[in-house]
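=== Given protein ===
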Amino acid sequence: MATLRETAARIETGSVILARRIGRALTPEGRPVLAIIRIGAVCLAAPPLYAAMERSPLLLAPLAVGIWCRRAWHASAPVAPDPEQLRRQLIKAVLEIVGDRPGIHLSELYPRLLASPWGARLDETRLRAALTEAGITIHRSMRVGDVEGRSGIKRADLEALLRPAPLSAVPDPSPTGGDAGQAPPESGGERAGERAESA
């Protein structure tokens, strides 16, 4: 539940947002005639509203303030973060810590990330889960500088994750051999998606 200070801060922020929205609505860009009409309508409607509030201040004034505060509260509601944006932010944060080195060991990365604003609300277990969910490969044993044999993350892997995905090639619909409807013969090499690994 929000505290009084948090509520006041949200209403203040929301009031600024509402004022900007009203300003944009009254003065649409590139349409001066419409802006004059709208501002004129507001000027004509303001005196009767003010007079009505003077006649019933105990009823209309709190009602108007309540409606405004409710609208301001909703206008300042936090926007749900985009998962893809959060993923890229984590990758960039790790890449910034890695710097120009070929990689970083987790023993160095964890304390630095947990001390940063990004990892302020995480512990090591949740941080590792976040790294895995972001698609970051954790190598069981890698060398960084003079130290080897520790788990870590390679800079090349991080850079690859930030690159846009390559466009898939459009298959040629024309037959390349054999009768129509026949599948092409299988080669004796590797299947799609497999890669030979050398020891």
